[in-house]
Each structure stands twice: as structure tokens, then as C-alpha cells.
Amino acid sequence: MTMNADAGVVMLTPNFHPYVGGAEKQALELSKALAAGGLPVVVATRRLPGLPAEDRVAGIPVRRLAAPGGGLLNAAGFMLSALWFLLRRRAEYGIIHVHLAGSPAVAACLAGRLFGKKVVIKVGGGRGIGEIALSSRTWAGRLKLGLLRAFRPQFISVTQDLADEMDEHGLGGCVRVIPNGVDTGRYRPASPEEKSGLRAELGWPEGLILLYVGRLAVEKRLVAFLEAFSRSCAQDPAGSPPVSIVLVGSGPEEPNLRLAVARFDLAGRVLLSPPTERIERCYRAADAFILPSISEGLSNALLEAMASGLPVLGTRVGGTREAVSDGVTGLLFDPPDDGALLRHLGALRADPALCSRLGAAARAQALERYSLAAVAERTRKLYNEL
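Now predict its structure.
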């Protein structure tokens, strides 16, 4: 049966603005893009302390549902609240689009079965460290995966790598790969004059600047990257521009990163900066983006950097491998291969124009494949095929 998506969509997500993570950002941006195309969208999410039960965020109606307690009690409470919401509002939507395959996904599947609605579940994370792998390691997670296998909703994976992992866990056959989207208007390249002005405002040095944006976590391999960077600094070609690293984010690895800066004698070369709501300024002020993770889904920061005209220096894993064309829009290396990483760093130092060439191609690819308009159109097409 073909479902008319114009009946409306409920975006069901465990957390939402002002809680901001990768999944939450994508839920908001996709909701805005779909609504701009005339599709009625309402977001249903967990109610956090101090937030109203009914709200509007960027023009999107938001309904925050009760979820008392913590842990499994909170998950169960939100699942029941979501089911009750979907029951009461069943005349107002045709699609339930769940962000992340947690307990709300089970509620959505049950509502879909009871009320004749179509269910789409967007799965997050990277191979081996995302929600599919983590769910397979606990009894509650294995129960959830079993229920999802039984209900067989339509899944969205942001990468083929994650889709392959889902197939290994018995969730294949109903998976569509649709990448994350990026606002290519907000994230855009800077002119040389704008870049110089932004660096002065941000207090950044001159020269070549490599930027990381995201959570400071061990799987990002940032300490190992700093060690390789320190060895590269000792091999600076004569007359090459100075190279600095800016790490924007927070997380459990921050103390280790500060220790690494001292241990590898990188004071003045590495700047740690807290998260900022005006992150687009950082992309425009930088020259290249680094993502040395051991595993990745499809990083929002990666797409933002590409849209901003930055080449990517990253590991050949997950969504990074799929989004970045090696030698065309960036430079890739295998996680343990510090030799390749050193060669890439040397290439960027030796040829400052290389960043501009790769970055222009990265921007073009972001416009073609990852713009919000393109991703929203692919999502709406999927809705209408259900």
C-alpha cells in the first residue's frame, strides 16, 4: 500500500532542542526542510525539567512527553507516553519517523501495527560502536532488536557500512541508505578577507590551521593524531607556513589531550576551545578538517566542514570513507597507518594551494549529495513509496 505522506509526519526522538547532539540536530534540520516543502511535521520528544509540554522550535511544533525516573524506568515511561500520544493523534499523521532505534522505536512499531501507520526508523552510530552493536551486548538491547526484526519497519541508515552491520544482525532487507543533510547556506566557504578577520576575532594564529569539531572521546584517536602531528612538526620543510591544530568540543578525553599537548611539546601549536553555537565561524576560519576516528557513522561536523569548503584529513572508516573521495575532496589514511598520515601532513605543508583545490571539490560534493533539500527530497520519496 502506498502511504500519502501529506497526511503528516510525527518525528519521534528521545531528545530534542535545546539538547543538541548529532541525532537531535538532524531531526530538527530534516523537520524544517520537510515543513518548508509543505509537509506537516510535529516533533514528539521526552520532556526534560524546566521545559514546557508544548513548544515551537524554529517554527516546528514540539510536544514533550512525560518520562519519569531514570534508566530503564525512564525508557519504559517514555515508550508508554509515546504510544499514548500516537494513539491520541492518530488522525493527524501517516508516517512515524523515529530518530534512533531505542525504546521509542518499539512504541512506534506497535502504534504502526495497531493504527495502520507506516514506520521509519533512522539508525545512528558507526560500525562496532553505534546503537546496533551496543544493543547486541545487553539483554534489553537484544530483546529490542528481536522486536524490531519481528515488526520489520522501514530503516534508514546514513551509511552503507552501517547498513551492512544491520544486515549482519538480521535487520537487512528493509534498509534504505539516506545520508545526513547539511545546511549549505549556513555552512559556506569564506573569502580570504573574511577568513583573516575571523581568525583575528577568534584569536587564532596565522598559517595553516587544521580543525577538529566534535566530542573529545577516545574513539576519535585525537591523542594519537597529536603524537603524529608532533613528529610531522619536526619535519617542517624550510620556509613552509606554520601549522596549528584547533580542537573545538568537550568530552572525557580533554584532560588526556591537555597532557598530550605538554608531553609532545605542542604548546602554541594546539588550541583547545569549548563548543560554540556559532561553529560556522570556526569552519570558515580554518584550512582543513581532521577526523582521525577509529569508527564513524556520517559525522555532522564532517558534512559541515565539506560544505564550508574544507578538505578532510580523515581515516578510511565508515561514513568518512563513503563521503570523502581520496585525493579529490580530502586525504584518507587507515587508523594504524601513521606513515600515511605523516605523508598527508607533509603534502599539506608543502603545497598550501592543495587545501583550496580539495576544499572546492568538497564544497561541490556537499552541494550535490548532502544538501538538506536533497536529503529531504529523498526522505519524502521514501515516505511515498511505503
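The mean pLDDT is 91.
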